[in-house]
Structure formats: structure tokens, C-alpha cells
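Changelog note: in this version the structure field was regenerated for every chain. One regenerated record is shown below for reference.
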Amino acid sequence: MIIGVDEVGRGSWAGPVCVAAVAWPDDAPKRGLADSKVLTREQRQKMAARIRRHAQGIGIGWVDAKQIDKIGLTAALQIAGRAAVTQIGLVAPIIMDGREKFLGDIEATYLIKADGKIPAVMAASIIAKVARDTYMYAMDHQFAGYKFSSHVGYGTKGHRQAIAELGPSAIHRLRWAPLQMYAQ
């Protein structure tokens, strides 16, 4: 078994950062697993349900926009990453997508593009993306006008236009360069 770890929301202008950890058994089915970025929303939803059936454990760590503004993205990723891995409560080799060692003293192998190579990390990629997107879809209803369900907080033209018209919402990250003028 391997515990795969991946994050989503790093470059978003709004909403939390989310890190998922998935304990994936060697004998679990791998068909359909892929980096979440290459799957459609429907494919991710189906795969997330399948991952939940086959995983030995799943952990999800969150840090919201206000906390990201307060402590910075690196510290936020460390908090979310440790929370995700700790929730699983199992001991197994950990493989994390990327090169940034934000699990701190938790021993892990860091591998660039692991979310497209290692089944456990692919599973974590999908779980993280589905969890965060689901949150942002809910925020679309709470903060009408920002259209969070279409861009999930990333800096699209439509998102920029909504911020220009409405100002930032309570879930916008005001430390991000495009939004710093609203930090006052």
C-alpha cells in the first residue's frame, strides 16, 4: 500500500487550499485513475466514488482564505498536508506530487508529476479536486454574482470582472497580487 498526497487550490484567488491523502492498496483497481486535471467533472465524480470504495483510508486537510492571508500559502499547505496524512492513521510509504516538501518532518518521497504516474497520487488528486470543487459550488450559491461554479476561484476573465463589479467576497485571498488593493 502507498499513501498518495496531492493538493488543489494553490493558485486560486478565492477559497481554501485542499490537500488529500489516499491510502491505496496495491491490488486495488487502477483503471480510470488519472491526474484530475485531465478528467471531466463527471469522470472525477465517478472516480471519487470508486476511490472511496477501494481506498484503505482517505484524509482531507483544509485551510481557508483568511488563514492563507494570515500565514501564507506554504504554511497553509503544511497544515493541510499534515492534517490529511494524519487523518488516515496508517503507516505506509508516502508519495507526494511535486517537489515542495510541505509535509515537514513526515517522511515522504516527492515526485514531480506523480499525479499522472502513481495510482495513489492520482486518487489523491481526484479526491482533492472533487472536495474543493464541491465546496466552491456551494460558495457559488452563498456569494451570488462571482460564478464560483464556473471557475472555482481561479483568475479567469469572468472572475476578474465580478471582482471589479462587486469587490472581493469573504472567501477571496487578499494577499494575492490582483487583490491586494482590497486588503485595506
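Spot check on this record: The chain has a mean pLDDT of 94. The chain has six helices and five strands.
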